[in-house]
Phosphoglucomutase (Polyrhizophydium stewartii), 600 residues
Amino acid sequence: MTPDAVAALAREYLAQDRNPVTRAEIEALLAAGDTARLAPLLAPRISFGTAGLRAEMGAGYARMNELTVIQASQGVCAYYLETVPDFKEKGIVVGHDHRHNSAAFARLTAAVFASKGVKVYFYRDLVHTPLVPFGVGLLGAGCGVMITASHNPKQDNGYKLYAGNGCQIISPHDKNISDHILNNLVPWTWDHELVNTSPLVSDPSEQVRAAYFAKLKTLSVFHEKNATQHVKMCYTAMHGVGLRPAVEVFSTFGLTPFVQVAEQVQPDPEFPTVAYPNPEEGKGALLLAMQTADKHGATLIFANDPDADRLAIAEKLPSGSWHIFNGNEIGSILGSLVLESLKISGGAQRPLAMISTTVSMHMLKQIAKQEGFRFEETLTGFKWLGNRAKDLEKEGYHVAFAYEEAIGFMVGDAVRDKDGISALGFAAEWANHLASQGKTLHAHLMSLYEKYGYFTSNNGYFICHEQPVINALFDDIRYGRERVASQAGAQYKFELRYPTEIGGSKVVWVRDLTVGYDSAQPDHKPTLPVSASSQMLTFELENGALITLRTSGTEPKIKYYTELRAPTLDQARTDLQAVVDSMIEICLRPAAHNLKTKAD
């Protein structure tokens, strides 16, 4: 944009923004003529996708602030008023976490809907994210909004939208809502107090919490035995909102209270003890929990992420070292234990199904094959898992479990989304039961390997903030670095020239969900949804290794997911590491593309 265009956009923004802090930031830059700093704040406009909104907080159309939250809410409201019968009566559920500005964003979201005569169920206190989709289902609401940035850094915030089925939205709803946002940019209201004065606004917290924990109690199969402690457990909320529901789910299951990581269990938007408030980051994120557990003699650690929709687990081994389970290991453990719970409680009343994502380890698929229940995989994200679970329910299946490798688990059917609290209660009960038999979660995992095969995964990511670099990287993989133009020239811009060998093993299958190519299909068209706006490539090697490369929808990351099954766990890990090293050298080429790691 030219300096004049940037200045004009800044004046347009100031005509809409009523927040004194963000107004002052734009006014100062405009007065100084600093269009270089103004431009990235104003354009491109923060986009509304299937993950809703998530970005750094600050002034401008490209940031999370009161104006962009109001504009998003107006688009959502207009869309649902247009498409959902009786939406005003059905209403919306609005919740928020503890992050900076979360309460204000939630209050303004509620005000937008109330200003149009829509009933608003407004959680006044902090809630963990699963209470929003659960509330949508319980109350029969038309949609739900949770203000949270989950495990993102402290400077970020987000706006997560759930449809009337209690699942995260999927396409084409995101595109339709984006269009409605652009048609409703002028603020309808800017009333922080409307949630206190409007008769349309009520707080359903007591009713929803009671129903939620009553539902979770049905997951317990050892309730009468849980009061006897067989393993000491430690818990951290990672400075988030998880402590209250974690305490309540332990009480609901009849479990002995856990040891608390005092420095991390209370909500704190500054996240002072962790560089990244993400328990998936491993030992660095769980260091305080390990120290606390060691001090109190606990041998099992549970950690929720800040909005408590995900769960991490670590266990002290007989050697004295801590084993941090990755998401695939937890998913395999929980899936197998859900199956055991169903056997104890009399079995599924309908045909059983479990779901995972295409980038998650295939051990659950092998369990399903040997145990005789239906398994399906979806694209990455619980928006796909949740909606597919709903579809399978309509087909008569009991969808008892779903997971994605990023420590997201759906245990039972309380919500059709990831839920770190239901997973916490279920995992803690089973850990206590296994301990009563002299077993550990890690030992249980080893027994699964012996029965179903030695699977291992090796996942990671590189950071890149420049979309053109990301696109060029994937095009290099897809078309070869020379990008030879196709002589046939019709279906693809360039001739597809994927790698033919990785890690000394031949590539036997390629699926590209960006351009819509699957070498295993007769017509070369994938069976999973294709999206040209996101990058996703999968390779299968002759040695059985699977590799998926994709971009993140919420973070500036290029992620890789790999797995391999072998006769022993050591061999699987060794062989897979060779594949990963080769893949990084051949495909990602971090030095050539100036990719960064967290350590950089």
